[in-house]
Structure formats: C-alpha cells, structure tokens
Amino acid sequence: MIPYATVEAAEEALGRAMTWMEVAWFRHSRSTPDYCLYYESLVILLTVYSVTSLPLTLLELCAPAKLTTPYKLQPEARLSPAAFLGCYKETLRVLVLVIISPVLYLPYPILKMAGTRTGLPLPSAGEVAAQLVVYMLVEDYFGYWLHRLLHSRWAYDNIHYIHHEYPAPIGFAALHSHWVELLILGFSVFVGTVIVPCHMATFMLWLAIRGIVSVDTHSGYDFPFSPAKLIPFYGGAQCHDYHHFGGKWSQSNFAPFFTFCDYIYGTDKGYKHHKASLEKNMESVRSEKEGLNGSISRKQD
C-alpha cells in the first residue's frame, strides 16, 4: 500500500509531478494490500492466457483452411470446437485451483523479502527492459533443465504427459498441465524476480509477457509477419511444435524462450535435421513446379 492519501501528498514526497502512469498506479494501489497486488498479477496471467488464445482458436475454427494451411505447422491436425472448449475448461479448472491454493501464496513473502516493492516512483523504461531481459535469460536456463527433467521416464509418465496430450499444440494448451508441473515450471518464472527484485508493476508485466510467449509457442502457427521474429534467438512456435510432435520421446527444444540452451547442450540436433529435411523437400517441390511451368510455357510457344 502507498502511504499517501492524495496525489498531491505523493507528489510532495517525490519532489516532482507524477507521470500519468504513476497517477494511475497510485489510484489503483493506494488502498490495496500488497498481497492483493501479487494475486492480481496471477489474475493478469490467467486473463492474458485466455484472451491471446481466443483469436487463434477462432482462426482455427472459422477461417477457411486454404488461408491458414500455409502457416499451420501441422496442417493435417484439426481439432473440433468441443476439443478446444474441453482443453480450456480443464486448464482453467487446474489454474484456478492452483491460484487459490495456499501453495501459491508462498512466493509472495519470498518476493517481499527479496525486495519487490509496490510504492512510488515507478521504475524507468530502461530499468524495466533490463529486468525483463534478465528474467527471460534466467527462466530460459532453469526452464530448460526443469523441462528436461520432466521428460525423464517417471516424471513424464506421472506429470508431464498431460501437457503432451496435444501433439499438435494449440494456444489453450499452453498452460494445459498437471498442477505439479505448473508449480515446477513456475519456479523458473519466479526465480529471476527474486535474484533481481523489481516493482510489482514490472512483475505484472513479466507475467503478462510470459503468458503471451507461452501461447505463441503453442499456437501451432508460424506467421512470417510475427513481431516475435525480430527477437534474436527466439525459438517460437516452430521449435516448440516439433517438441510436441515428438511427445514422450522428444529430446529436442526444451528451452521456453531462446534456442541457445538447446544449442549449447546439444538438444537441437533432431530439430535441425527435421528442419533441413523439410527445406529439402520444399526445394524439390519448387523445382518440380518450376519444371512443370517451364514445360507448359514451351508447349504454349
């Protein structure tokens, strides 16, 4: 909670006028306990997951196949509306149970002890950007190893198999997991914010970004115009779709964000071979089409 009753009192304490974002944060958080702000961040994650998955679902179910097939990574895999709804309902049930459970309250005091703050001033854009980069790198490393652990025989057969129920992933399958897996991989999401403490607003933004990335990597589509392609070393849907395609036996593409952990530890070889084979096949198809077009042109001449 912010210890100021009015905007004027807060500005007097800061020694300057507040920005519009600081005013908005002040009005929102001045009477809200800090632990409620923490739980709001979890609600933000849930909301982002639901909202960003919806357009992909509508695209899959409503758009003509001839428009989506060029971008769909597994074009032969088409799910029914009931399958989409079932995935979302089951995932939502598990997420709500995890969010309201006492277990998820544990990270809050840890974040507070680490130095997460809720007051004014808000961090600068540069500080937020630097912290987000750190969180991505930290999660990528821890998430890589925890994901590999989940592909051990016992962990997969008892926990991780639920997430792989969709070999051709969809947006709603991003968080479709056993509740234990949500806690295990949630550690890699939180640990960076403990190592490098931030403002609660940054923490909320981090969880929102994490939700968007998770949906994107499970979207099942590889759009050439996606802004994510501008991010260096970003794995994206293409990498993770291959991981899901392999299912229990997948030994490639474990990292949640980037590709360098898989490269360093040699778990990208299967994917690279697969990608090279696809490119070779596409080149053969293009050559055949060019040859056919050339033959038709000569006949017309």
TrEMBL record:
<dbReference type="InterPro" id="IPR050307">
    <property type="entry name" value="Sterol_Desaturase_Related"/>
</dbReference>
<dbReference type="InterPro" id="IPR006694">
    <property type="entry name" value="Fatty_acid_hydroxylase"/>
</dbReference>
<keyword id="KW-1133">Transmembrane helix</keyword>
<feature type="domain" description="Fatty acid hydroxylase">
    <location>
        <begin position="133"/>
        <end position="267"/>
    </location>
</feature>
<comment type="similarity">
    <text>Belongs to the sterol desaturase family.</text>
</comment>
<feature type="transmembrane region" description="Helical">
    <location>
        <begin position="37"/>
        <end position="58"/>
    </location>
</feature>
<protein>
    <recommendedName>
        <fullName>aldehyde oxygenase (deformylating)</fullName>
        <ecNumber>4.1.99.5</ecNumber>
    </recommendedName>
</protein>
<dbReference type="GO" id="GO:0005789">
    <property type="term" value="C:endoplasmic reticulum membrane"/>
</dbReference>
<feature type="transmembrane region" description="Helical">
    <location>
        <begin position="182"/>
        <end position="209"/>
    </location>
</feature>
<dbReference type="Pfam" id="PF04116">
    <property type="entry name" value="FA_hydroxylase"/>
</dbReference>
<keyword id="KW-0521">NADP</keyword>
<feature type="transmembrane region" description="Helical">
    <location>
        <begin position="91"/>
        <end position="108"/>
    </location>
</feature>
<keyword id="KW-0256">Endoplasmic reticulum</keyword>
<keyword id="KW-0812">Transmembrane</keyword>
<keyword id="KW-0472">Membrane</keyword>
<dbReference type="GO" id="GO:0071771">
    <property type="term" value="F:aldehyde oxygenase (deformylating) activity"/>
</dbReference>
<keyword id="KW-0456">Lyase</keyword>
